[in-house]
UniProtKB/TrEMBL annotation:
This is Glutamate or tyrosine decarboxylase. InterPro entries: GrpII_AminoAcid_Decarb, PyrdxlP-dep_de-COase, PyrdxlP-dep_Trfase, PyrdxlP-dep_Trfase_major, PyrdxlP-dep_Trfase_small. The keyword Lyase applies. It comes from Prauserella marina. The modification N6-(pyridoxal phosphate)lysine is found at residue 234. Belongs to the group II decarboxylase family. Sphingosine-1-phosphate lyase subfamily. It comes from the Bacteria.
Length: 478
C-alpha cells in the first residue's frame, strides 16, 4: 500500500462519520444486518477478487457465469422454481421489476396501449417501469384496513391491453402478502403474465414457513405466476447490488434481453439494463450464500421473526400507537391512534436523537402517516432498548405537540402547479421550511415532512426532485 493510502482511507472514514449506522440494528430501513461476525470481511474480499472482471461477456469471464447460475439456482430452489425456471442477476429490486415489465411489454407487440395492473400498495418501481417503457399503470385500490390487494378488483381491471399483473410478497409499506393465488388465477384465465414482487421478503419467507408461520402461497409453484423477483442484498444479507429475477421458462425471459449488431464494434449482448457489470457484487453474493448456508439462514430468520414479534407487541403497548394491517413478515408500519396530540414526524426526529432511524411514510389512500420498520436479525436482543426509546420519543413528541404548517404556507402550497413550478417559488418554500440556502438538511426533519405532507403527491414529487437537484451540486462538495 502506498504512503498516501492510509490518509485517503482516513479521509473516507471522516466523510462517512455522519452516515446512518449500517450495523447494530439501529437503522430500520435501507440496510440489512445479519449480525454475523466476519461476514462483511468475507464479502469484501470476494468482491475485491472479482471487481475488475466484467459480466458483460460470460465467455471472457466464465467464473461470473458460473456464479450467476449458482445464485439463480439457489433462488429458484427456495421459491418454487421448476425444471424450466431461468433467471437473471440484476443490480437490485428496481431493475428486476423494470425487466419484468419490459419482458412482458416486448412479448405483446400487438397491444395498442400496453398496461400493467397493480395494487395501490405495489412498489414505486413499477410506476418507474411504466414511465420508462411507455406502459400505462392501472392502479387498483386495496381492501380498506387490510392493505391487501383485492383479487376481484384486480381481475376486473385486466383487459385486452394488459401485459402484466403484479402482486407483492410482502408489500414494503405494510409487510402484508397479497392473495397471490387468486390474482394469478385471474391473470392466467385471461392469458396475462403475473409477476410477484418478493424483492424484500422472498428470501426469508420460506424460512418463516419452516419455522411455523402460516403464510399464503406466493412463489413460482403457484399456478399462473410467471415471474418473481427477490433481492439478495436484503434478507440474504449480501452486499448491495444483487437481486434475482426468475421466470418460469426461457421464453418469458427473452423480452428483456437486448442485442445490437448495428455498429462496427462487437455485437452488444445484454441480459439486464446495464452493459458493463462488475463481477464484484456477484462474487460477494455467491460467497455469502455459500458461507451462511440453509441452516444459517434458518437461524437468522428465527432471530428476525422473534425480534419482529417482540417489537410489534411492544409498539402496541405504547399509548397512542398501533400497527397497520396484519403484517405477515418482518416489516412493521407504526401509526397513531386517533387524536393522540402528537405527530409521528416528531417521533422520528426524537428517535434519531436517541440513535435510531425509523422511516417516515406519508399518507396515501387508506394508509395514514406512519413509521416504517425493517426488522433484521441484528435487532434480536435490542428490542427492549428500542421500545424504551420509542416510548420516550412519543412522550417528547406529545409534550412538543403536533407540528403545524402555517395557514399562509399551506395556502401557498395549495396554489402551486407542479408542472409550472418556478425556481423562485421553490426558493420561497425552502425559506418557509427553514432550508434557506438549500445546502443541506436541518437537524430536525419534522417541519419539512409536515410541509411535504400537505402537498399533493405530484407536487411532493416535484418539490423533492428540485431539492435533490440542490443536493447533487459538485460546487458544494469541497
Amino acid at each position: 500500500m502506498s504512503e498516501a493510502s492510509p490518509a485517503v482511507l482516513a479521509e473516507l472514514r471522516a466523510l462517512m462519520a455522519d452516515d446512518l449506522p449500517t450495523h447494530g440494528g439501529h437503522t430500520l430501513a435501507y440496510v440489512y444486518d445479519s449480525g454475523l461476525a466476519g461476514l462483511d470481511r468475507l464479502a469484501a474480499e470476494a468482491h475485491a477478487s472479482a471487481s475488475s472482471a466484467n459480466a458483460l461477456d460470460p465467455t471472457a469471464f466464465p467464473s461470473l457465469l458460473r456464479m450467476e447460475n449458482d445464485l439463480v439456482a439457489a433462488a429458484a430452489a427456495r421459491l418454487g422454481g421448476g425444471p424450466g425456471t431461468v433467471g437473471t442477476v440484476t443490480s437490485g429490486g428496481t431493475e428486476s421489476c423494470l425487466l419484468a415489465v419490459l419482458a412482458a411489454r416486448e412479448a405483446s407487440n400487438e397491444t395498442v396501449e400496453p398496461a400493467v395492473v397493480l395494487p395501490s400498495t405495489a412498489h414505486a418501481a413499477f410506476h418507474k417501469a411504466a414511465h420508462l417503457f411507455g406502459v400505462r399503470a392501472v392502479e387498483v385500490p386495496v381492501v380498506p384496513g387490510t392493505f391487501l390487494a383485492d383479487p376481484a378488483a384486480m381481475a376486473a381491471a385486466i383487459d385486452e391491453n394488459t401485459v402484466l399483473v403484479v402482486a407483492s410478497a410482502p408489500s414494503y409499506a405494510h409487510g402484508v402478502i397479497d392473495p397471490v393465488a387468486e390474482i394469478a388465477e385471474a391473470a392466467a384465465a385471461k392469458g396475462v403474465r403475473m409477476h410477484v414482487d418478493a424483492c424484500i421478503g422472498g428470501w426469508v419467507l420460506p424460512d418463516l414457513r419452516k419455522l411455523g408461520a402460516e403464510l399464503p402461497p406466493f412463489d413460482l409453484s403457484v399456478p399462473g405466476v410467471t415471474s418473481l423477483s427477490v433481492d439478495l442484498h436484503k434478507y440474504a444479507y449480501c452486499p448491495k447490488g444483487t437481486s434475482v429475477l426468475l421466470h418460469a421458462d426461457a421464453r418469458l425471459r427473452r423480452g428483456h434481453y437486448f442485442a445490437s449488431a448495428a455498429w462496427p464494434g462487437y455485437t452488444m449482448l445484454n441480459t439486464t439494463l446495464q452493459s458493463t457489470r462488475s463481477g464484484g457484487p456477484l462474487a460477494a453474493a455467491w460467497a455469502v450464500l455459500r458461507h451462511v448456508g440453509d441452516e444459517g439462514y434458518l437461524r437468522l430468520a428465527e432471530d428476525t421473526a422473534t425480534a419482529a414479534a417482540l417489537l410489534r407487541t411492544g409498539v402496541e403497548r405504547v399509548e397512542g400507537l398501533r400497527i397497520l394491517g396484519e403484517p405477515d413478515a418482518t416489516l412493521l408500519a407504526v401509526a397513531t391512534e386517533g387524536g393522540p396530540g402528537f405527530d409521528l414526524f416528531t417521533v422520528a426526529d426524537e428517535m434519531k436523537q436517541r440513535g435510531w432511524y425509523v422511516q417516515p411514510q406519508f399518507a396515501h389512500g387508506d394508509s395514514p402517516v406512519n413509521l416504517h420498520l425493517t426488522v433484521t436479525a441484528a435487532n434480536r436482543g435490542g428490542e427492549a432498548g428500542f421500545l424504551a426509546d420509542l416510548e420516550a420519543s412519543v412522550a417528547a413528541a406529545r409534550e412538543a405537540g403536533p407540528v403545524e404548517v402555517a395557514d399562509e404556507l399551506a395556502a401557498a402550497i395549495a396554489a402551486l402547479d407542479p408542472d409550472t413550478l418556478t425556481s423562485e417559488q421553490f426558493a420561497g418554500l425552502l425559506e418557509g421550511a427553514g432550508l434557506s440556502g438549500g445546502g443541506g438538511l436541518p437537524e430536525r426533519m419534522a417541519p419539512v415532512n409536515a410541509l411535504l405532507a400537505v402537498a399533493p403527491p405530484r407536487l411532493r414529487e416535484r418539490l423533492l426532485l428540485e431539492f435533490l437537484g440542490l443536493l447533487y451540486r459538485y460546487g458544494d462538495s469541497a
